[in-house]
TrEMBL record:
This is Pyridoxamine 5'-phosphate oxidase N-terminal domain-containing protein. Residues 18-134 form the Pyridoxamine 5'-phosphate oxidase N-terminal domain. It comes from the Bacteria. It comes from Streptomyces levis. Transmembrane segments: none annotated.
Length: 153
């Protein structure tokens, strides 16, 4: 069997790498499920505020409908080799009730303010409870970098 050349990173390095990607990346896959309609997955722009992931979607979207019925979500950064997966519960904020600092930061990052649109939007806030990060099979062991909402070092 050939070696992949991957040297497993210590937990502190994986955590630092995840935080750097959260600051740099733009898109995140959001997986939701509805008791009657089943699973749904969609990429959304996201913003990391240092504690939570913020996203925005149409108020009538399948994502918003699913989160209202079942707030547990899974999130993933879009790289199948440098994997980062999040678990948490989503909280919905109608565009007229979202905290101003979050909405302003979102608008500043993307140059788009959903509150100024004609349609209704909801902001989704997910505080991760569990985060897993790994690069290839050699890093599967020790892939949890956040447990119970606390970063591991």
């Amino acid at each position: 069997m050939e070696s992949t050349g991957i040297v497993p990173r210590p937990t502190a390095e994986r955590t630092r790498d995840v935080l750097e990607r959260l600051a740099a990346e733009r898109d995140m896959w959001v997986s939701t499920a509805h008791p009657d309609h089943g699973p749904h997955q969609v990429p959304l722009w996201f913003m990391w505020d240092g504690r939570a992931v913020w996203m925005c979607t149409g108020a009538a979207s399948a994502t918003a409908r699913n989160v209202r019925a079942e707030p547990r979500v899974r999130l993933a950064l879009p790289d199948s080799f440098n994997v980062v997966l999040f678990q948490g519960e989503a909280e919905c904020f109608p565009d007229r009730e979202v905290p101003a600092d979050a909405a302003e930061a979102f608008a500043g990052r993307f140059g788009w303010d959903p509150r100024a649109e004609e349609g209704s939007f909801v902001y989704l806030r997910v505080v991760p409870r569990v985060v897993r990060a790994w690069r290839g099979e050699p890093e599967l062991r020790g892939r949890v970098v956040m447990r119970d909402g606390q970063w591991l070092r």
